[in-house]
Input
Amino acid sequence: VSTTAIPGYAFGAVSRSPVTLEELELLKQAAGWTPDDDALLRRAGELLVPRSEEILDVWYGFVGGTPQLLEAFRRRSDGEPDADYLARVRARFGRWIADTCATPWGQEWLDYQHEIGVRHHRSGKNRTDGVDAAPVVPLRYLVALAWPVTATVRPFLEAGGDSPAEVERLLDAWRKAVLVQVALWCRPYVAAEDF
Ligand code: HEM
Output
């Protein structure tokens, strides 16, 4: 996926995360990160990135079929889902799969995680695409979507011919990666001292 072709994708061009790399390391440890997880995520990326469009079809099917989630994409003016907004976010979401699997994560990755959190929060939602949709993605849904975003990749990880035990390890690495990111995205939602 060419990064310049994705409207609003700003990896490498956002301000510094308030979370430090040292804090990221502690967070990964708290999620049970092991030294193998970086390589497992790169392997997961070999399987997931080429099939990003199919994965996005599954995720968008879920969001579109779950009214309280689709709410986030509805225009405030007429209450209709904003198709352009959905399409633009979808392209960045696809790129996110690749970024998640491009380990080890560094400072630019950490910075962009904060930006993604801000983009779900009322301090930055809608800004990137210049839309007038719902003002915030509720924090509770941000957390809960971690399960669908994890469970749905299983068949894609299974399709590479890895042993069942290896598939479990790939899925565990992906699960930890999603959890760590959702935890980072909570930062704009809570008081700094409570994060
Ligand atoms: C584990 C949970 C989630 C993941 C992995 C995820 C992932 C993403 C990614 C990668 C982006 C694009 C970031 C960028 O601009 O580069 C995004 C944006 C967005 N997501 Fe999520 N998301 C999650 C939860 C949710 C939930 C629960 C909702 C809605 C109910 C939601 C609605 C949105 C919206 C509306 C945007 C666009 C925000 C903007 O205006 O810039 N997301 N999400």
